UniProtKB/TrEMBL annotation:
Broad enzyme group: hydrolase
Lineage: Bacteria, Bacillati, Cyanobacteriota, Cyanophyceae, Oscillatoriophycideae
Name of the gene encoding the protein in the UniProt record: ugpC
A cellular component term, taken from the record's GO annotations: ATP-binding cassette (ABC) transporter complex, substrate-binding subunit-containing
EC number: 3.6.3.20
Keywords in alphabetical order: ATP-binding, Hydrolase, Nucleotide-binding, Transport
Superkingdom of the source species: Bacteria
Protein name: sn-glycerol-3-phosphate import ATP-binding protein UgpC
One term of GO molecular function: ATP hydrolysis activity
One biological process term in Gene Ontology: carbohydrate transport
UniProt domain ABC transporter: residue ranges: 4-234
């Protein structure tokens, strides 16, 4: 096992900048996930670590050894690709043994390793089959097995689950996490799927347009994003972003006013007419019914300074356990400016497009962003 350290890694393709000033260190044995939208540079970073790409500038260290000039085959890393890259003319056993054969491992020792790896991945019954005789999930296990059999210092996984259907992807993701817990090999995993990223990672590296936006443990990044891009990328449904204007100690959305908490006023010292973006996740929005108003009154927690908003339902999407409601905040003074907002309600509520509702926002969970740069200003 080994740590992986990137220092000021930049990669240019002629005049196109793919990644810029990438700095992070993955400690020995940890599982880190590079996540971000398509084209953000995730795979370029992974291929640079593997030695399949050459950095324009910067240094790559594996096990505290500078590997810039070391070819890919000698870096002692194992990479699993999106398309699995199995040899179609070889059996599963031969695919598993290929890396060991190239390294000159004794055939008897190779067979022992193959049997052990196959057993750990539950593919013993597939050893004599060819890749074309396997399902996508089985091919994925063989690709993982080939990497494991080499006993590398580092695993590099480039969207290995993206070709699987939803249920198999969920099952395989859980198996992959258990596998890492057993083996403890330093792993760097690339995905654009934020659910995979959140569930697998010890640490997330959020990327956008070739630059690192934030590094941290999944829950911390989710609850305290450094900017609007991170806030909206993580979470499903995504965080709501609402343009607001400060005035008279209030925040204004369209022609509706919201209380501006004193903690926000003290930290931001906002000026009259200053514009911000307010962020709030769908799970921190509650739609008001006569029943929950009574409950709140009885508990002495409901008051209108707790940020009510009037909205109009545009789309209702039943999800089984709850209903996702897509609504908009009407603006009578400027009807062409309608701000969308999403939230979830219990499945027993019967809502329809055109329904007018009052919702309340949890003030303890709102974020304030710079409306120009997108940087998080509060908290």
């Amino acid at each position: 096992m080994a740590n992986v350290r990137l220092e000021n890694i930049t990669r240019r393709y002629h005049t196109t900048l793919a990644i810029e000033e990438i700095n992070f260190e993955v400690p020995d044995g940890e599982f880190w996930v590079l996540v971000g939208p398509s084209g953000c540079g995730k795979s370029t970073i992974l291929r640079t670590i593997a030695g399949l790409e050459t950095a324009t500038s910067g240094n790559v260290y594996i096990d505290n050894t500078l590997v810039n000039e070391i070819p890919a085959r000698k870096r002692d890393v194992a990479m699993v690709f999106q398309n699995y890259a199995l040899y179609p003319h070889l059996s599963v056993a031969e695919n598993l043994a290929f890396g060991l054969k190239m390294r000159g491992v004794d055939p008897t020792k190779t067979q022992e390793i193959i049997q052990k790896v196959a057993q750990s991945l539950s593919i013993e019954h597939l050893l004599n089959r060819k890749p074309k005789q396997l399902s996508g999930g089985q091919q994925q296990r063989v690709a993982l097995g080939r990497a494991i059999a080499r006993e590398p210092k580092v695993f590099l996984l480039d969207e290995p689950l993206s070709n699987l259907d939803a249920q198999l992807r969920d099952d395989t993701r859980a198996e992959l996490k258990q596998l890492h817990q057993r083996l403890g090999i330093t792993t760097i995993y690339v995905t654009h799927d934020q659910v995979e990223a959140m569930t697998l990672a010890d640490k997330l590296v959020i990327l956008h347009q070739g630059k690192i936006q934030q590094i941290g443990d999944p829950q911390r990044v989710y609850s305290r994003p450094k900017n609007r891009m991170v806030a909206t990328f993580l979470g499903n449904p995504p965080m709501n972003i609402l343009p607001i204007t400060y005035g008279n100690s209030l925040f204004w959305i369209a022609n509706q006013s919201l209380t501006c908490p004193s903690a926000i006023r003290e930290k931001l010292q906002p000026q009259e007419g200053q514009k911000f973006d307010l962020g709030i996740r769908p799970e921190h929005i509650q739609f008001i019914t006569s029943e929950n108003v009574i409950d709140d009154l009885q508990q002495d927690v409901w008051a209108f300074e707790k940020v009510p908003l009037d909205v109009e339902v545009s789309v209702v999407e039943p999800l089984g356990r709850e209903i996702l409601v897509r609504a908009y905040i009407p603006n009578s003074s400027q009807p062409h400016e309608q701000y969308s907002i999403q939230f979830q309600v219990p499945i027993h509520h019967h809502l329809h497009p055109g329904d007018r509702l009052t919702i309340k926002l949890d003030l303890n969970q709102i974020l304030i962003f710079n409306s120009t740069t997108g940087d998080t200003l509060y908290p």
